[in-house]
Specification:
mainly alpha; single chain
C-alpha cells in the first residue's frame, strides 16, 4: 500500500513536469511517444492503485499483498519507469531553456557589438579623421 502511494505521488510529479513542459513550449523529441508512455503509465498506476484499495478491504488480502514479492517488484519497476520519464522530460526542458538562453546571449552580443561599432563611427575622433 505504501509503495502504491509513492508510485501515485511520483506519477503526479511526472504529470506536472509534462504539463509545465507543454505550457513552456518545450518541444520533446518524439512528443507522441512521451504522451503515449505517460498514458500507459497512468493506466498501470491506476491498476496498481485499484488493486491496493481492493486488498485493503480485507485483512487476509492485506497480508497477502504485503508478502507478494511479484507485485512489489512490478510496482518498483513501474516506479522506475515513471521516474525515468520525469527525468527525460526535465532534461528536455533544461536543454531547451539552455538553447533559448544561448540564442538570446548571441543576439545580445551581436547587438552590443553593433552599438559599439556605431559609437566608434559617431565618436569625435572618427569625425576629425
Amino acid at each position: 500500500m505504501r509503495l502504491t502511494r509513492i508510485l501515485v505521488s511520483a506519477l503526479a510529479h511526472t504529470e506536472n513536469a509534462y504539463l509545465d513542459a507543454l505550457e513552456n513550449g518545450v518541444v520533446l523529441s518524439a512528443d507522441i511517444d512521451v504522451t503515449e508512455k505517460l498514458t500507459l503509465l497512468q493506466f498501470r498506476v491506476s491498476s496498481f492503485r485499484e488493486a491496493s484499495l481492493r486488498n485493503s478491504l480485507s485483512s487476509f488480502s492485506t497480508l497477502y499483498d504485503m508478502f507478494d514479492t511479484r507485485r512489489s517488484v512490478a510496482v518498483f519497476r513501474c516506479l522506475s519507469e515513471v521516474r525515468r520519464l520525469q527525468t527525460y522530460i526535465e532534461i528536455s526542458h533544461e536543454y531547451q531553456l539552455r538553447e533559448i538562453i544561448s540564442e538570446s546571449r548571441c543576439q545580445c552580443l551581436l547587438a552590443t557589438r553593433a552599438s559599439i561599432s556605431l559609437r566608434r563611427r559617431d565618436s569625435p575622433h572618427a569625425r576629425s579623421v
